[in-house]
Amino acid sequence: xxxxxxxxxxxxxxxxxxxxxxxxxxxxxxxxxxxxxxxxxxxxxxxxxxxxxxxxxxxxxxxxxxxxxxxxxxxxxxxxxxxxxxxxxxxxxxxxxxxxxxxxxxxxxxxxxxxxxxxxxxxxxxxxxxxxxxxxxxxxxxxxxxxx
Length: 148
What we know:
Elements (H helix, E strand, L loop, with lengths): L1 H16 L9 E15 L2 E17 L2 E11 L7 E2 L4 E7 L4 E4 L6 E6 L4 E7 L7 E10 L7
Antiparallel strand pairs: 1-2, 1-9, 2-3, 3-4, 3-5, 5-6, 6-7, 7-8, 8-9
Protein backbone atom coordinates (compact mmCIF):
# COMPACT_ATOMS: atom_id res chain seq x y z
CA UNK A 1 0.00 0.00 0.00
CA UNK A 2 2.85 2.37 0.83
CA UNK A 3 4.42 1.74 -2.61
CA UNK A 4 1.12 2.52 -4.35
CA UNK A 5 0.80 5.78 -2.41
CA UNK A 6 4.43 6.69 -3.19
CA UNK A 7 3.94 5.90 -6.90
CA UNK A 8 0.78 8.02 -7.07
CA UNK A 9 2.49 10.92 -5.28
CA UNK A 10 5.51 10.80 -7.61
CA UNK A 11 3.22 10.59 -10.65
CA UNK A 12 1.27 13.69 -9.60
CA UNK A 13 4.46 15.56 -8.79
CA UNK A 14 5.89 14.71 -12.21
CA UNK A 15 2.75 15.98 -13.97
CA UNK A 16 2.81 19.34 -12.22
CA UNK A 17 6.60 19.71 -12.41
CA UNK A 18 6.50 19.45 -16.21
CA UNK A 19 4.09 22.34 -16.78
CA UNK A 20 5.43 24.39 -19.67
CA UNK A 21 4.60 27.53 -21.54
CA UNK A 22 2.60 26.81 -24.71
CA UNK A 23 4.06 27.74 -28.09
CA UNK A 24 0.89 29.68 -28.96
CA UNK A 25 -2.28 30.70 -27.18
CA UNK A 26 -5.41 29.21 -28.72
CA UNK A 27 -8.72 27.70 -27.75
CA UNK A 28 -11.78 28.46 -25.67
CA UNK A 29 -11.44 29.89 -22.17
CA UNK A 30 -13.97 30.92 -19.56
CA UNK A 31 -13.64 32.59 -16.21
CA UNK A 32 -14.39 35.64 -14.13
CA UNK A 33 -13.08 39.07 -13.32
CA UNK A 34 -13.61 42.07 -11.10
CA UNK A 35 -13.49 45.78 -11.92
CA UNK A 36 -13.07 48.14 -8.93
CA UNK A 37 -13.25 51.96 -8.79
CA UNK A 38 -11.74 54.20 -6.14
CA UNK A 39 -13.02 57.60 -5.06
CA UNK A 40 -11.98 60.18 -2.50
CA UNK A 41 -14.64 61.31 -0.02
CA UNK A 42 -13.52 64.00 2.43
CA UNK A 43 -9.92 63.22 1.38
CA UNK A 44 -10.36 59.55 2.32
CA UNK A 45 -9.83 56.85 -0.29
CA UNK A 46 -12.82 54.52 -0.59
CA UNK A 47 -14.00 51.78 -2.94
CA UNK A 48 -16.88 53.45 -4.75
CA UNK A 49 -17.97 50.90 -7.36
CA UNK A 50 -17.41 47.21 -8.18
CA UNK A 51 -18.38 45.03 -11.15
CA UNK A 52 -18.24 41.23 -11.18
CA UNK A 53 -17.95 39.58 -14.60
CA UNK A 54 -18.15 36.09 -16.06
CA UNK A 55 -16.88 35.57 -19.58
CA UNK A 56 -16.30 33.09 -22.40
CA UNK A 57 -13.62 33.89 -25.01
CA UNK A 58 -11.84 32.22 -27.91
CA UNK A 59 -8.16 32.85 -28.72
CA UNK A 60 -7.32 32.27 -32.37
CA UNK A 61 -4.39 33.58 -34.42
CA UNK A 62 -3.73 37.01 -32.90
CA UNK A 63 -7.31 37.87 -31.91
CA UNK A 64 -9.41 37.22 -28.84
CA UNK A 65 -13.15 37.00 -29.48
CA UNK A 66 -15.54 37.50 -26.57
CA UNK A 67 -18.35 34.96 -27.06
CA UNK A 68 -20.47 35.88 -24.01
CA UNK A 69 -20.03 38.17 -21.02
CA UNK A 70 -22.34 38.95 -18.11
CA UNK A 71 -21.84 41.33 -15.21
CA UNK A 72 -23.42 42.53 -12.00
CA UNK A 73 -22.46 45.85 -10.44
CA UNK A 74 -22.88 47.71 -7.19
CA UNK A 75 -25.12 50.75 -7.34
CA UNK A 76 -26.98 49.76 -10.53
CA UNK A 77 -30.11 48.49 -8.81
CA UNK A 78 -30.59 45.94 -11.60
CA UNK A 79 -30.03 42.20 -12.04
CA UNK A 80 -26.95 40.88 -13.82
CA UNK A 81 -26.95 41.83 -17.49
CA UNK A 82 -25.25 40.75 -20.70
CA UNK A 83 -22.30 42.88 -21.80
CA UNK A 84 -21.56 43.84 -25.41
CA UNK A 85 -19.12 41.42 -27.04
CA UNK A 86 -16.33 42.02 -29.53
CA UNK A 87 -12.89 41.20 -30.83
CA UNK A 88 -9.53 42.39 -29.49
CA UNK A 89 -5.97 41.88 -30.72
CA UNK A 90 -3.45 40.15 -28.47
CA UNK A 91 0.23 39.33 -28.43
CA UNK A 92 1.90 36.39 -26.69
CA UNK A 93 5.57 35.77 -25.87
CA UNK A 94 6.24 32.04 -25.37
CA UNK A 95 9.61 32.84 -23.75
CA UNK A 96 8.06 34.73 -20.83
CA UNK A 97 4.54 33.19 -20.88
CA UNK A 98 3.18 36.74 -20.93
CA UNK A 99 1.37 38.99 -23.35
CA UNK A 100 -0.80 42.01 -24.01
CA UNK A 101 -4.45 42.39 -25.02
CA UNK A 102 -5.96 45.47 -26.61
CA UNK A 103 -4.27 48.56 -27.95
CA UNK A 104 -0.86 49.96 -26.98
CA UNK A 105 -2.56 53.10 -25.62
CA UNK A 106 -4.66 51.15 -23.07
CA UNK A 107 -3.22 47.61 -22.74
CA UNK A 108 -4.29 44.74 -20.54
CA UNK A 109 -1.39 42.49 -19.54
CA UNK A 110 -1.64 38.78 -18.85
CA UNK A 111 0.37 35.75 -17.84
CA UNK A 112 -0.20 32.14 -18.88
CA UNK A 113 0.44 29.26 -16.48
CA UNK A 114 -0.28 25.56 -16.02
CA UNK A 115 0.81 24.64 -19.57
CA UNK A 116 -1.61 27.14 -21.09
CA UNK A 117 -4.62 26.16 -18.98
CA UNK A 118 -4.79 29.34 -16.88
CA UNK A 119 -4.63 33.00 -17.91
CA UNK A 120 -4.50 35.83 -15.36
CA UNK A 121 -5.12 39.38 -16.60
CA UNK A 122 -4.58 42.81 -15.02
CA UNK A 123 -5.59 46.23 -16.28
CA UNK A 124 -5.11 49.65 -14.75
CA UNK A 125 -6.67 53.05 -15.28
CA UNK A 126 -7.07 54.07 -18.91
CA UNK A 127 -4.89 57.11 -19.74
CA UNK A 128 -7.74 59.60 -20.29
CA UNK A 129 -10.32 58.16 -17.90
CA UNK A 130 -11.65 60.40 -15.14
CA UNK A 131 -12.06 57.33 -12.89
CA UNK A 132 -9.41 55.62 -10.77
CA UNK A 133 -9.79 51.88 -11.26
CA UNK A 134 -8.16 48.50 -11.69
CA UNK A 135 -9.39 45.12 -12.82
CA UNK A 136 -8.24 41.50 -12.60
CA UNK A 137 -9.43 38.40 -14.45
CA UNK A 138 -8.75 34.67 -14.38
CA UNK A 139 -9.59 32.44 -17.35
CA UNK A 140 -9.41 28.64 -17.55
CA UNK A 141 -9.07 26.59 -20.72
CA UNK A 142 -12.12 24.55 -21.70
CA UNK A 143 -11.37 21.16 -23.18
CA UNK A 144 -13.52 19.22 -25.59
CA UNK A 145 -14.27 15.73 -24.37
CA UNK A 146 -14.80 13.12 -27.05
CA UNK A 147 -16.86 10.08 -26.15
CA UNK A 148 -16.47 7.06 -28.41
